Amino acid sequence: MNEQIGKSIEELRAYNKSLERSPEYQRILPEVMWEVNTQFVKEIIAQEERWLSYKVEEEPIEDDDPIIVEFFKTLRADLKAQDELRKKRIEEAKELLPTDPARAAELLSKLGSCHTLWALQKRILKEKYGITWYTPAELNPDVKFD
């Protein structure tokens, strides 16, 4: 049973602050973050590779309006260029992952990634160490994090 149920946000913040300052938490944090970043990178790589498995249509664009035709040609070219950048980022992240998962995670992070990282951290702390930890989003419900 979670001993923090029914506590105010201020009490939960104090709990987290105390937890994060504890020697035990400080001792395990590097290992936890290694695992968080490793899992994050693996998840993002899997998502990106699924995206890359979809092919950009190569069939001719049939439209009487030359502006529409040019728009779709440009869109295709942009998608192909983005895919090349995506492939490069994936390869770089794969190279970094065994020795520097934090750098690999930074390379693949985008808007909203903090929520995924926090969820992983929360889960790992709970499952592996039995520690209840609250994310910044949980402790600051009126703040929008990206």
What can you tell me about this protein's structure?
Helix 2 crosses helix 4 and helix 3 packs antiparallel against helix 4. This protein has six helices and no strands. With 146 residues, the protein is mainly α.
What layout of secondary structure does this protein have?
Layout: H1 9-21, H2 23-53, H3 66-96, H4 101-108, H5 113-129, H6 136-139
Summarize the structure.
The chain is mainly alpha-helical and 146 residues long. 71% of the residues lie in helices and 0% in strands.
Listing every helix as H and every strand as E from the N terminus to the C terminus, the arrangement reads HHHHHH
How big is the Rg?
A: 21 Å
- Amino- and carboxy-terminal Cα gap: 31 Å
- Whole-number tally of structural domains: 1
* Backbone structural class: mainly alpha
Sheet bearing the most strands, described?
A: none
Instruction: Bin the strand percentage.
Output: under 5%
Instruction: Write down the overall mean pLDDT.
Output: 92
Features of the shown structure:
mainly alpha; 146 residues; 6 helices
